[in-house]
């Protein structure tokens, strides 16, 4: 009997320890977040329009640290892509690689800021009620708004790092030109620092035309979403974000590919709003940082993926333009089983070695 109870006790103790370790693991891997809104009064857009109240939603991890001069030393701004939100960076393939204990952007050391851009997520957007009467914002407006969120809303007067994916990549270049002394380093992922033209402009215009030409759009005053327009939008988004090698291996048969397409529409359709998407894509209309790239003084680690449909490497634009940046480096990630086309920007395991290099290079 004594042996029985001893074995029972040992097994029970092992089970308790297993449960405690299993519970502690996921909790420690997901740093606590703070969520909030900052309202900018009478925000003036470059178009001449204004909003009496512009709501900017954000999430943060960690706490700000200041030096003896009152300068924030550990703030990291991470900017999402078209149609995205700051929340997307809490996924395991991003946060799980960067924000945990001992990782490159450990939330115990850094103050990580994940905002929603104008027109996105829980920030002010057309679908809130103004529909097609919402101000025609652009990338400069979006960057200016986030600058006010940082300085006025969060009390951040300096950034250790600006990182952005896709649209956020383009915003990173705008940040570097507009506020060159505001950050220690820049890491743009998946974009080109030139005017959106060629195929990139054409597929974007096709999505906008699909919405504007759908009779059910009704000039933006629809009571239900214009179905055919959004179907076209999703078609083009799927192609633009595709990774041929990955898709061929993942969906190797006709039926597998057809089933994936059906699942894709079911998962994405309900989340789309025609006006919001139209504004999001149209906000890139006057983006062109190329003439001012020499104004960027912070070190830049600029990364694209070779299987990116939106930013194809054969154009040679990235290699040409990075030469204008005083302290810039461009890295083209080769196609592999791990890359995901344009979406490689969010798979931190593939490129975090370059983030480490940038942080070391820009350390004070």
Largest sheet: 8 strands, mixed
Structural class: alpha/beta
Share of helical residues: 25-40%
Content of β-strand: 15-25%
The largest sheet has its strands arranged as 1-2-4-3-5-6-7-8
Tell me the CATH architecture of the largest domain.
3-Layer(aba) Sandwich
Counted beta strands: 8
DSSP summary: helix tally? 11
Average pLDDT reading: 92
Name the overall outline: globular
CATH 4th-level superfamily of the largest domain = Alpha/Beta hydrolase fold, catalytic domain
Low-pLDDT segments, ≥5 res: 1-28
Rounded radius of gyration (Å): 23 Å
- List the domain count as a whole number: 2
| Distance between the first and last residues' Cα | 66 Å
Would you give an account of this structure?
The chain is of the alpha/beta class. It folds into two domains: about 30-195 and about 285-360, Alpha/Beta hydrolase fold, catalytic domain (Rossmann fold); about 200-280, Rna Polymerase Sigma Factor, Chain: A (Orthogonal Bundle), CATH 1.10.1740. Helices cover about 40% and strands about 15% of the residues. The protein contains eleven helices and eight strands. An eight-stranded mixed β-sheet has the order 1-2-4-3-5-6-7-8, sandwiched between helices. β1 and β2 (about 50-60) form a beta hairpin. α5 runs antiparallel to α9 (about 275-280). It is globular. It starts with a helix and ends with a helix. The model is unreliable at about 1-30 (pLDDT under 50).
């Amino acid at each position: 009997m004594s042996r029985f109870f001893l074995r029972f006790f040992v097994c029970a103790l092992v089970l308790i320890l297993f449960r405690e370790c299993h519970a502690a693991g996921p909790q420690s891997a997901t740093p606590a977040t703070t969520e909030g809104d900052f309202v900018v009064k009478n925000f003036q857009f470059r178009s001449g329009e204004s909003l009496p109240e512009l709501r900017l939603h954000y999430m943060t991890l960690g706490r700000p640290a200041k030096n003896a001069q009152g300068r924030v030393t550990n703030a990291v701004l991470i900017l999402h892509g078209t149609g995205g939100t700051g929340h997307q960076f809490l996924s395991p393939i991003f946060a799980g690689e960067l924000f945990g204990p001992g990782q490159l952007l450990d939330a115990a050391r850094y103050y990580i800021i994940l905002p929603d851009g104008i027109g996105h997520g829980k920030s002010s957007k057309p679908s809130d009620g103004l529909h097609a009467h919402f101000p025609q914002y652009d990338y400069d407006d979006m960057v200016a708004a986030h600058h006010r969120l940082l300085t006025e809303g969060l009390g951040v007067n300096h950034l250790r790092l600006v990182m952005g994916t896709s649209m956020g990549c383009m915003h990173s270049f705008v940040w570097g030109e507009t506020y060159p002394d505001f950050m220690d380093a820049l890491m743009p992922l998946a974009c080109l620092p030139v005017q959106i033209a060629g195929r990139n402009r054409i597929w974007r215009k096709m999505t906008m035309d699909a919405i504007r030409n759908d009779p059910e759009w009704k000039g933006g005053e629809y009571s239900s979403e214009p179905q055919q327009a959004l179907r076209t939008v999703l078609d083009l988004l799927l192609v633009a974000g595709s990774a041929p090698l990955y898709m061929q291996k993942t969906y190797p048969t006709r039926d597998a590919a057809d089933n994936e397409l059906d699942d894709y529409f079911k998962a994405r359709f309900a989340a789309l709003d025609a006006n919001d998407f139209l504004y999001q894509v149209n906000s890139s209309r006057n983006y062109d940082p190329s003439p001012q790239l020499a104004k960027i003084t912070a070190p830049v680690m600029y990364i694209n993926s070779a299987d990116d449909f939106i930013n194809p490497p054969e154009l040679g634009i990235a290699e040409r333009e990075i030469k204008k940046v005083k302290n810039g480096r461009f890295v083209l990630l080769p196609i592999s089983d791990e890359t995901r086309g344009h979406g490689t920007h969010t798979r931190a395991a593939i490129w975090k070695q370059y983030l480490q290099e940038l942080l070391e290079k820009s350390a004070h």
